[in-house]
Every structure is written in structure tokens, then in C-alpha cells.
Write a structure and sequence with these properties.
Layout lengths: L5 E7 L1 H12 L3 E9 L1 H9 L3 E4 L12 E4 L4 H4 L1
Parallel strand pairs: 1-2, 1-4, 2-3
Length: 79
């Protein structure tokens, strides 16, 4: 998936869900990478509202997005 139009979100827990919902409200295309996703995020992916990759984040996930939002419970990763 490419693209400089897409906003990346790292994290799909409660914090990530809030960020995802805000981005969708702004009509953003959202691509999410997270080891685990809460059911609400999984449902958004099943509906086609977002793309979701349930796997560990890698630095390559920063490439190709207009912006990437770190939204995990891991402060070190968020920084």
C-alpha cells in the first residue's frame, strides 16, 4: 500500500482507536499497524474503513505515508 495520501497509525488499542476515529472523521485514508487490535479497530478494517496489518511495527512502516501517528501504550515507541 502506498502512498503519500495515507496516514499511518501505529497502535490499535484504545489510544489508537481514538486517533483512528479522529482521522476518519477528517476523511483521511488510514493504514494501521499493530501487534493486537481491539475489536472496534478490527471491525473498521472488516468494513473497509481502514487497512490493518496485525504485526509488529518496523521502521519501514514510516515510509510512504504523509504522516504517521504513534498511538501505543509504549512510551519509548511513541517517542
Amino acid at each position: 500500500m502506498s502512498t503519500m495520501e495515507t496516514i499511518g497509525v501505529v497502535g490499535a488499542g484504545p489510544i489508537g482507536l481514538e486517533k483512528i476515529e479522529g482521522l476518519l472523521a477528517a476523511n483521511a485514508k488510514v493504514h494501521v499497524v499493530a501487534k493486537h487490535a481491539v475489536p472496534e479497530v478490527q471491525e473498521l478494517a472488516a468494513e473497509g474503513a481502514i487497512t490493518l496489518e496485525e504485526r509488529e511495527y518496523t521502521p519501514d512502516d514510516l515510509v510512504g505515508h504523509l504522516l504517521v501517528v504513534a498511538a501505543t501504550e509504549d512510551t519509548e515507541l511513541n517517542v
